[in-house]
Amino acid sequence: MQNRAIFGGTFNPVHWGHLCVAETARDQFSLEQVIWVPAAYPPHKGLAPVAFEHRLEMVRRAIADHPAFVVSDIDQQQTGKSYAIGTLENLQPLYPQTRWYWILGADALPSLPRWYQVEALARHCTWLIAPRSHQTGNGSLSLPAPLPWHWEKLEMPEIEVSSSLVRDRLRQGRSIRYLVPEAVRLYIEMKELYTK
Fold it and tell me: Which CATH class is domain 2-158?
């Protein structure tokens, strides 16, 4: 059995916080791979993100120098919205003999009970929860019940960089240098993303 984690998200855009979470998970749980899966049609986001191909390319550029990180465009194969259970079911045949983990920010915990077929997803993977200060101020995590949760907390500093912060700064014409990898910053600049 090999240990692999799925890191799903909108990545709108990917930033250094995402990379720190993924590397912490890889190191802490001896993962052979972290599979980054940008959501093609995220079901829980109010506003439509930047086009999928841009978000996919930004992730590809952000992780290009890491041998254990791979990006998958598998969410494009789903019809309709991108549900986590569909992502897992599509990846399983590609990676047999895998012990699955799912990387998740603590800010997503309140929405978990509303995820499509979350009980089935929880039976097949262990959640790796990345702390966020406004959810874990006392150092503890409270997970929704009564779902079959198997989870571990990622031991890492709380990083308050967010995609919404990056987008806000871009709309204001402010610098995002050192908030995102330089390859991502240059791609955003080249494609004039988030400025209109």
Answer: alpha beta
Those residues whose C-beta lies under 8 Å from the C-beta of residue 101, and which sit 6 or more positions away, are 3, 4, 5, 6, 25, 29, 31, 125, 126, 127, 128
Half-sphere exposure of 93 (CA within 13 A, CB side): 4
Tell me the per-residue pLDDT of 24-42, one tens digit each, with 9 for 90 and over: 999 999 999 999 999 988 7
Roughly what angle, to the nearest 10 degrees, separates helices 52-62 and 182-191?
150
Q: Where are the domains of the chain?
A: 2-158
Confidence at 16, pLDDT banded by 50, 70, 90: very high
Q: Which residues contact 59 (CB under 8 A, 6 or more apart)?
A: 11, 14, 36, 38, 71
Nearest Cα neighbor of 48 from 14, 82, 84, 12 is 12
Cα gap 147→45, rounded to integer Å? 23
pLDDT of residue 113: 83
Name the band, by pLDDT with cuts 50, 70 and 90, for residue 138. Answer: very low
Strand, coil or helix: what is 152? Answer: strand
The helix/strand/coil state of 54 is helix
